[in-house]
Amino acid sequence: MRADTPVRYLRGVGPHLAEKLSRLGIGSVTDLLFHLPVRYEDRTHITHVGALRSGMRAAVEGRVELTETVIRRRRMLLCRISDGSGALTLRFFHFNQAQADALSRGARLRCYGEVLSGTSTLEMVHPEYRVLQEGQSPPDETALTPVYPATEGIAQLKLRALTTQALQMLDSAAGLLPELLPPELLDHTGMPALTAAVRYVHRPPADAPVAALVDGRHPAQQRLAFEELLAHHLSLRELRQRADRSRAWTIPGASSVEKEFRAALPFQLTGAQQRVAAEISHDLGKPHPMMRLVQGDVGCGKTLVAALAALNCMAAGYQVALMAPTELLAEQHFHNFKAWVTPYGFEPVWLTGRMPAAQRRETLANIHSGHALLIIGTHALFQEDVEFAKLALVIIDEQHRFGVHQRLALREKGAVDGSHPHQLIMTATPIPRTLAMTAYADLDVSAIDELPPGRTPVITVAVADTRRAEVAARVRAACRTGRQVYWVCPLIDESEVLQCQAAEDTATRLAVALPELHVGLVHGRLRAAQKEAVMAHFKAGELQLLVATTVIEVGVDVPNASLMIIENAERLGLAQLHQLRGRVGRGALESSCVMLYHAPLSAAARTRLQVMRATNDGFEIARRDLELRGPGEMLGTRQAGELNLRIADLNRDAALIPQVQRAASLLLEHYPEQVPLIVRRWLGENSRYGQV
Ligand code: ADP
Ligand code: MG
């Protein structure tokens, strides 16, 4: 039996079901065996209806008292059952007549589902159930019931039946699930063999340790999680090896331009900045593309380090592209870099999606001819009609929302005559090590783990929005002493229009409440020139209070701004709060951040606000963020989709990571032929590995 035996081979799988299964990524019997339960349900005992509580998942048995089809907003079938200890309503929105008939008064049912509070009794919506024959008393389930990731049109029962068949095939066909991990690794770690682990996870035996399985910490699950993390890690390591085999221009370090620039700075680079600058310089001197992630908390001076690299590239006659996630941030970079590089005869050009056509044509011509050496902009930099002449370095700011595919696309895009650009990625959201090892294993990581001297931690408080008037008084007092203030109105609605509207309303109200202040407003719907003008006025101190949407989240740098008010702080995630707060505390002034919240707070929101009050440390905040949100959300949806872990959990399984790294090195060195097999098993045909 071959590993790629199609699911059609199984009993009861016709073209229709095969098509549905393919939507779950299941094409072969092996795929089915790796379609692992997402959780388990404990149906090993029957709960009395009277003991049910809303939110529980439970198995119950009872007799039908009443079944009726009703039409409220939509047609539904309601079935009330009772076991003498209480009554429970089963509610079905999809049903047929035969089903309704079978649920006639007096019929005995066993059902399983989540208990919800209903209008008169507790309810289960679309429970799994079966009608029991009179006198029949089926044995209770003896083992935990696996629950599979489902898709519309395939019921759990069907998936269970199919995996049962696949597991039976596994007994008779040795070749179905080849062991891909080398024996010395299995011996060394004492992990269970693959087939044993797969079997256990699909059908835990009656005496299985329930708590361990439910938590995903059973050795069988850990064995599979290990192999899954290994597959992801290997696919990235393989990509990295390919990068290491491709060519790039070598850039000499320590150009006279760089030396002059450093000497002219009004401050010393921090030790961390010097170290990271040296790492980058070393990479750029090699004939293979650098792929380096620079992590550093907001305000640690990443941009300056990137500027040093850019100067060296330009001094050698090559182009540099700097890409920022928002137009506002790109503009800021443009102004900073302009001030930094023009004294050395370099003129940055600006490219975004929203430029007048004639200007854009001219800019594109300058990029294509190689006349423009430093090109700054948004994603527009890498649109199809942009052609670089000799792009040596791509700097990506705040890119953690951007996945492996995009990194690859950028590399290909910039390639000229077989030379790929070096990539420098800057992120202010430190990525916990586990996550970095899985999501960024193709990158080298540098950390700027030191802030420039004289920075003071931001004092952070949470205040109920009923005390808005006190907060306004505080704004007035701060402005009176010459400080400047941000008032942030974050996303309170999905729509950008409404968000901007809220900011406009707030600006109007504040202008009335604080008539002596100069109030500015910046949001995403202003034209670039307008935003730029407002920011310039704020930076120059002509505006004292800046009302803004989260467009100021990243990069904005006004050291005299020392107070930030964040509206609806309870709706923001930790990473975003930390980014926003990083806009203050950038000078030596004592700074504060007031998080206005709307009561009541959910438990999660309360925790987030507590974390923000307790620490200014970006790494600590990132760690808590990972704990609270999980890696998917932390990386952004794109990367979450890319990672798409089936059984591993980056929080729970962090301890496996060092072992995974060692195993990856062992495989790449001694068993390279196994690598594509492991990657394909877990990442599928569409893996990034397959696409390159
Ligand atoms: P990041 O991009 O890491 O958030 P920036 O590069 O924008 O940080 O730097 C923040 C501010 O600190 C800028 O005003 C920058 O000029 C300043 N800065 C950078 N490095 C130093 C340093 N070594 N000493 C003092 N100030 C610095
Ligand atoms: Mg920055």
Concise overview:
The chain is of the alpha/beta class and 692 residues long. It has 26 helices and 22 strands. It has a seven-stranded mixed beta sheet with strand order 6-7-4-3-2-5-8, with no helix packed on it. It has a seven-stranded parallel beta sheet with strand order 12-13-11-14-15-10-16, with helices on both faces. A six-stranded parallel beta sheet has the order 17-22-21-18-20-19, sandwiched between helices.
Q: How would you portray this structure in words?
A:
Among the domains are: 45-139, Nucleic acid-binding proteins (OB fold (Dihydrolipoamide Acetyltransferase, E2P), Beta Barrel); 256-448, Rossmann fold (3-Layer(aba) Sandwich); 459-615, P-loop containing nucleotide triphosphate hydrolases (Rossmann fold, 3-Layer(aba) Sandwich), CATH 3.40.50. Strands 6-7-4-3-2-5-8 form a seven-stranded mixed beta sheet, with no helix packed on it. The protein has a seven-stranded parallel beta sheet with strand order 12-13-11-14-15-10-16, sandwiched between helices. It has 692 residues and is α/β, with parallel strands linked by helices. 42% of the residues are buried. It is globular, with a radius of gyration of 30 Å. Mean pLDDT is 86; it is low at 637-641 and 688-692. The structure holds adenosine-5'-diphosphate and magnesium ion. The site of magnesium ion has 3 residues, from helix 11.
N/C terminus separation: 30 Å
CATH class of the domain at 256-448: Alpha Beta
Give a count of the beta strands, DSSP E runs of length 2 or more.
22
Reading side by side through the largest sheet, how are the strands ordered? 6-7-4-3-2-5-8
Tell me the radius of gyration: 30 Å
Looking at the structure, what is the overall shape? Answer: globular
Contiguous low-pLDDT stretches (5 residues minimum) are 637-641, 688-692
Bound molecules: adenosine-5'-diphosphate, magnesium ion
Summed over residues and divided by their number, the pLDDT gives a mean of 86
What is the CATH topology of the domain at 256-448?
A: Rossmann fold
Q: State the CATH architecture of the domain at 256-448.
A: 3-Layer(aba) Sandwich
